[in-house]
Amino acid sequence: MNKICTFAVAATASLTIATHSGAADLPNAPTYKAPIATTAVYNWTGFYIGGNAGYGWGNQDPLVLFSNRFDRQSSDISGGMIGGTIGAPIHQGYVGLGLEGDLDWADINGSSTMTPRVLGIGQGVTLNVASKISAIGTARARVGVAMNNVLFYATGGGAFVKSSANGTTVAGVPCGTLGVLPDCSASSWRPGIAAGLGVEWGFTPNWSLKAEYLYTAVVGSGVSTDRLNTVRTGINYRF
Fold first, then answer.
1. Cα Rg, the chain, nearest whole Å
2. Using 50, 70 and 90 to split pLDDT, how confident is the model at 72?
3. pTM higher than the cut 0.85
């Protein structure tokens, strides 16, 4: 009986040792490593179209639309604007370069009482003058720094502004008197320059929102220069 017990104990010990030895010879199970997550870089390159809306304020010399002989006078103007935008940027690394153009309908207007003067001498008439900017177009370059899907940019280029004015006599000779003020209503497109700053946020691969400030100086006749400040927001779709 003792021999049988001794044999059973010895067999059990041998089996245990063999099992551990075999397990030690097996290769280690492979360790799974999750792939390293990468963040996609937003691409600003591509032709885009969009819309914008905003508000403008500044000053305008309406008399220069009637005649270029009068002394410089100005009237405060303000109002809204809305229109369309096209552009084509190239994005490389942190740098974004592009061209942008827009055309906006505007209702930026004001009124004032003016006495036309030549070298400080009155012309015998006092007018109520309503002045207005009814359209604004720009063609500009944009240079920006892209922080992934946020683009900070500076912009500058040419501008064209549709200006108009209408005067009615308050006192003195009637408006329209030959040799004094033959024209009391006028309208024309005038050239200028535009420059500003903006920021654009790409909220999907194709859609972006922007906000910008533009300063526009409109060249008139003689020494006349109208000045317009505009703040605009817009949305663009990039192809």
1. 37
2. confident
3. no
